[in-house]
Design brief:
Blueprint: H1 18-22, E1 50-54, H2 63-77, E2 81-87, H3 89-98, E3 102-106, E4 113-119, E5 123-132, E6 141-149, E7 152-160, H4 168-183, E8 189-196, H5 201-205, E9 213-220, E10 223-230
Parallel strand pairs: 1-2, 7-8
Antiparallel strand pairs: 2-4, 3-4, 5-6, 6-7, 8-10, 9-10
């Protein structure tokens, strides 16, 4: 989860040779994923694997190492959907070239933004949109993708909420936008939201969800992240 001390200037000073620094294979070609070539079993057809990851794209010093690690992890675990936060344009280009089995959806073009990776063999994109947050001061938005997986309709949503302790009100405003999308989704659509919310425990306790919305709290390495999904 993002540190409160981080600034968001949106400026990207990526070295020209950055992408060459992170390519693993000697010929510069994308690394092969054994899992990506395996045909899903009948049981797996009814499952959806999803990862959400803040790539910390503004950290120039660690970016080559982080991006290389991300590609290795995704090739190893082969998830169906990946929610990404803190992307920058060079990072997007690198992921497109290295993860050729995925379709990249971008939640912005400049500065720092979110994105999604959809496995081409399992997830069919119907449409996507960027939903603006009217009062954001950090150019945050909600990235939404309507998809079909094994004949089922899903609405996938990811976001990177406003950071810093003093922006509680704005984070809650952004959460309310997400809640409205959950509430008003069609009855035949399952909605999944995940990302870097920057929400404090006290802020989450101030929120309420309808009975048809399942809420889960996941804790790892003493860092909290929240995932809400409206189940059908």
């Amino acid at each position: 989860m993002e540190s409160d001390s981080k600034t968001h200037s949106g400026e990207d000073t990526t070295p020209d040779d950055w992408m060459a620094m992170v390519v693993d294979s000697p010929d510069g070609s994308p690394a092969a994923s054994p899992a990506a070539t395996q045909k899903p079993s009948e049981e797996e057809d009814f499952k959806l694997s999803l990862i959400t990851w803040n790539v910390d794209g503004l950290d120039l010093e660690k970016r080559p190492e982080r991006s290389r690690g991300l590609v290795k992890y995704l090739n190893l675990h082969n998830p169906d959907v990946v929610f990404l936060q803190e992307l920058v344009p060079p990072y997007v280009q690198f992921l497109k070239e290295q993860l050729i089995n995925y379709l990249m959806i971008e939640g912005g073009r400049n500065g720092c933004f979110t994105g999604m990776l959809l496995k081409k063999s399992r997830v069919k994109l119907v449409e996507s949109e960027m939903v603006p947050y009217p009062t954001t001061k950090m150019r945050r938005n909600l990235l939404v993708a309507q998809v079909i997986v094994n004949g089922l309709k899903l609405c996938l949503m990811t976001s990177h909420f406003e950071s810093c302790k003093e922006n509680t009100a704005e984070r809650l405003n952004q959460l309310h936008v997400v809640k409205r999308r959950l509430k008003h989704a069609p009855d035949d659509v399952t909605v999944v939201f995940g990302g870097d919310t920057n929400l404090r425990d006290a802020e989450v306790r101030r929120c309420s969800f309808h009975s048809d919305t399942a809420s889960k709290l996941v804790t790892r390495n003493h860092s909290n992240s929240f995932l809400w999904t409206r189940l059908r």
